[in-house]
């Protein structure tokens, strides 16, 4: 992230690998089905090789999916960057953040991941959220620190 003069990075992260656990488990079950069916119809050794190749592809896809999303909180902005080849960047000024909400299902609490949802002034962008973030309370604290820093900076410049 290119920082503006006087801007400091408060938080930077990616979705946690634990947030992709459902993706991994579903893919592994699908791979097991493919391996079992292939073993019944054809060669068991070929089925194992196909299963291992598919497993490697799933692990790589999950890794790329996780690293292709980057969340950042600075003393001036919130930013979400998505994509490797094509890019989608969403950002808002820290002063525009009015409410910060965290949500965690029971499973997410066990996995220590969750979603941090930001309500911003003057926008209808309901999709400004950090999804699958590890330790969501840390993000909320980072935003609170950034907002206090921005307020202190505004008051000192008056």
Cα end-to-end separation: 28 Å
Q: At CATH's second level, what is the architecture of the largest domain?
A: Roll
**Averaging pLDDT over every residue, what do you get?**
89
Largest sheet: 4 strands, antiparallel
Examine the coordinates and then state which fold CATH places here, giving the name of the CATH topology of the largest domain. Answer: PH-domain like
Q: Main sheet: which strands, in order across?
A: 1-2-3-4
Highest-level CATH class of the largest domain = Mainly Beta
Which descriptor suits the 3D outline?
elongated
Overall strand count: 7
Q: Cα-atom Rg, whole angstroms?
A: 21 Å
Secondary-structure element sequence?
A: EHHEEEEHEEH
Classification by helices and strands = alpha+beta
Low-confidence stretches: none
Please give the oligomerization state of what you see.
Answer: single chain
Count of helical stretches: 4
Percent range for β-strand residues: 25-35%
What count of domains describes the coordinates? 2
- Helical proportion, percent range: 40-55%
